[in-house]
Automatic annotation (TrEMBL):
This is LysR family transcriptional regulator. Gene3D superfamilies: Periplasmic binding protein-like II, Winged helix-like DNA-binding domain superfamily/Winged helix DNA-binding domain. Keywords: DNA-binding, Transcription, Transcription regulation. It comes from Marinibaculum pumilum. Belongs to the LysR transcriptional regulatory family. It holds the Pfam family HTH_1. PANTHER family: HTH-TYPE TRANSCRIPTIONAL REGULATOR LEUO-RELATED, TRANSCRIPTIONAL REGULATORY PROTEIN. Residues 15-72 form the HTH lysR-type domain.
Length: 316
């Protein structure tokens, strides 16, 4: 279904644009309750909107699946056009009326990794709960190459993270930079307060390589060791940062190199120690990325400024 046919259907007395907003909210939230909250409706009003959508399209559209709602194949076919229409309404029409964070009811969606959730979410949630108490947050994990399409469709407002392979056509802004650190198990009795080059070469390494990337996050360490004619022993490569301290705790003879803020979070649970790497490594840059379609959207502009402010105090 095209945007034109969607807008043609919108003239039918049985369908209005408010129902497209309801579809959009259900698609994003996967829950009648959360969708209603995001639109400022009661749950019964949201259920009524879903019934009207089902009647109009002759399809359930969203069906119960565990604790949430899953789209049917027909809903999946409708989604790109509906999200495009709603994105246009929000980005080009509603934004002209201004954005008041204190009273706004909406859900902000972010593309980020599990590392991003550990580093980004706490300060972002603190700011939004204080400045925009009625807004909600949702996170998505998508492949880097899929980020532009997700941002363009409006399914996500921002992409937060390192994104070394930045897709073309996106705006970006650096939030902060931090160095790499070396992690060792607290049960490792051989490594003292500083790790030597000989020790890190002798130990097995745990690296994180996201499924859509061809190189690990700690590629800088690999490059520096190769420059010295040293090839490290990668025992485990995983797409998940959260497993790293668990593996190091279980196997104290292994080592990992991660961004400092992530290492600081891991160290709070007493399974690993944070040490400076035995070689100099370049700082790690974390950024926010957004699509040109929302570059002037007042809500997105406010969101970007708020997130930038949340990380102004982070050490270099």
């Amino acid at each position: 279904m095209t945007i034109i046919s969607i807008m043609y259907d919108a003239h039918d007395p049985k369908l209005d644009l408010n129902l497209l907003l309801a579809f959009d909210a259900l698609w994003r939230e996967g829950s009648v309750t959360r969708a209603a909250d995001g639109l400022g409706l009661t749950q019964s009003a949201m259920s009524h909107a879903l019934r009207r959508l089902r009647q109009f399209y002759g399809d359930p559209l969203f069906v119960k699946a565990g604790p949430g709602m899953r789209p049917t194949p027909k809903a999946e076919r409708l989604a790109p056009s509906v999200l495009s229409v709603v994105g246009t309404v929000r980005g080009e029409l509603l934004s002209q009326a201004g954005f008041d964070p204190a009273t706004a009811r909406r859900s902000f969606a972010f593309c980020m990794t599990d590392m991003g959730e550990l580093v980004f979410l706490p300060p972002i949630m603190e700011r939004l709960r204080a400045l925009a108490p009625r807004c909600r947050i949702r996170t998505l994990q998508v492949a880097t190459e899929a980020v532009p399409a997700v941002l363009e469709s409006g399914e996500a407002d921002l992409a937060l993270g390192s994104m070394h392979l930045v897709p073309e056509g996106l705006y970006r802004q650096e939030l902060f930079r931090h160095p790499f650190v070396t992690l060792v198990s607290t049960r490792n009795g051989e490594v003292g307060d500083r790790m030597t080059l000989e020790q890190i070469v002798r130990m097995g390494h745990v690296t994180v390589t996201l499924s859509d990337r061809s190189e690990p996050y700690d590629r800088a360490l690999e490059v520096e060791l190769e420059r010295r004619g040293i090839r490290r022993d990668v025992v485990l490569s995983t797409p998940h940062f959260l497993v790293v301290p668990l593996i190091l705790d279980r196997f104290p003879d292994l080592v990992a190199t991660v961004p400092r803020e992530l290492g600081t979070v891991f160290a709070r649970y007493d399974a690993v120690r944070v040490l400076p790497p035995p070689v100099d490594l370049p700082a790690f840059s974390l950024r926010q990325h957004w699509h040109p379609r929302v570059h002037h959207d007042e809500a997105n502009v406010w969101l970007r400024r708020t997130i930038k402010a949340a990380f102004e105090g982070y050490p270099e």
